Amino acid sequence: MDKHSILLSTTDLDSRITYANQSFCEVAGYTIGEMLGQPHNLVRNKDMPKAAFKNMWSTIQRGDSWMGPVKNLAKNGDYYWVNAFVTPIRDTKGEIVEYQSVRTAPSPETL
């Protein structure tokens, strides 16, 4: 992953991908067509502790943003690390309607 890449995706409330930018598709090795409608855990690496995602979900579902290092899995079986920033997106009534994830290349000290 290029240190200047920004991987961007949005999901519905059930974690199904509703948008993925070209950088995310390229790094993960999927086409946009393969990603849309799929659960975001499509790129989850089995090495990631389940507790990290439990913490992330409890944080974003209560309306707060979450940030942390994440090891992801590409379609070809390779893995890649990202710094993930996940935030709930609200409508005009203040209701959470989707989640947005922005990922960047991690610095060595974050791994």
TrEMBL record:
Listed PROSITE patterns: PAS
Source taxon at top rank: Bacteria
Domain PAS: 1-38
Pfam families xrefs: PAS_3 (PF08447)
NCBIfam families, per the entry: sensory_box
Protein name: PAS domain-containing protein
Species of the source: Pseudoalteromonas peptidolytica F12-50-A1
